[in-house]
């Protein structure tokens, strides 16, 4: 597995710097976008899409939930972790119900952030592996079935 690429969509440069440093310390590659517009521009220009996006809900140009939904349309396989100061239960439930893989509140414990990132990536890769194995199994069954029908002639 290659080094996972993580896109950070956070308008506060101090918070973004902490996240980038923590991810770097744990061997993750990360890019920072200060707004949803910057995030989507980065995605459009990038040859390699991120494995996971960390999204703040309080972005200057678009609500983070809206940005998350747009991201899901562009890159449905991307893991999503919401990292925000919005502590109200309705925000947390809505974020998770609308597709976030996890939701963390600021201020956050850096080591917990890394654990949650790893958890999302682990689930993503396990799902990808099981889909790959299922497709291979289906292909084998199809091959066996076509071999059996051609042998019955």
List strands and helices in order, with pairings.
Blueprint: E1 5-9, H1 13-25, E2 29-33, H2 36-45, E3 52-55, H3 64-74, E4 79-84, H4 89-97, E5 102-105, H5 110-151
Parallel strand pairs: 1-2, 1-3, 3-4, 4-5
Helix pairs in contact: 1-5
What do you see in this structure?
- It is a single chain.
- It is built from five helices and five strands, in the order βαβαβαβαβα.
- Helix 1 (13-25) packs across helix 5.
- The chain has helices at residues 13-25, 36-45, 64-74, 89-97, 110-151; strands at residues 5-9, 29-33, 52-55, 79-84, 102-105.
- A five-stranded parallel β-sheet has the order 2-1-3-4-5, with helices on both faces.
- With 153 residues, it is an alpha/beta fold.
Which keywords apply here?
56% helix, 5 helices, 5-stranded parallel sheet, alpha/beta
Largest sheet: 5 strands, parallel
Arithmetic mean of pLDDT: 90
Per DSSP, what share of the residues sits in E-state strands of 2 or more residues? 15-25%
Shape: globular
Task: Look at the helices and sheets and give the structural class.
Answer: alpha/beta
In terms of quaternary structure, the protein is single chain
Radius of gyration from CA coordinates: 19 Å
Query: Poorly predicted ranges (pLDDT <50, ≥5 residues)?
Result: none
First CA to last CA: what distance? Answer: 45 Å
Q: State the share of residues found in helices, binned by percent.
A: 55-70%
Order of helices and strands: EHEHEHEHEH
Spatial arrangement of strands, main beta sheet: 2-1-3-4-5
Q: What's the tally of helices?
A: 5
| Total strands | 5
């Amino acid at each position: 597995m290659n080094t996972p690429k993580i896109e950070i969509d956070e308008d506060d440069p101090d918070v973004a710097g902490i996240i980038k440093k923590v991810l770097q310390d744990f061997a993750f590659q990360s890019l920072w976008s200060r707004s949803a517009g910057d995030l989507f521009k980065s995605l459009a220009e990038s040859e390699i899409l991120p494995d996971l996006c960390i999204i703040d809900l309080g972005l200057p140009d678009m609500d983070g939930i809206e940005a998350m939904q747009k991201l899901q349309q562009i890159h449905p396989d991307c893991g999503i972790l919401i990292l925000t100061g919005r502590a109200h239960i309705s925000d947390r439930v809505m974020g998770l119900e609308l597709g976030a893989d996890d939701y963390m509140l600021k201020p956050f414990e850096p080591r917990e952030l890394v654990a949650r990132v790893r958890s999302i990536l682990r689930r993503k890769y396990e799902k990808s592996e099981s889909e790959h194995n299922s497709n291979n199994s289906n292909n084998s069954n199809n091959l066996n079935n076509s071999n059996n029908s051609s042998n019955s002639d």
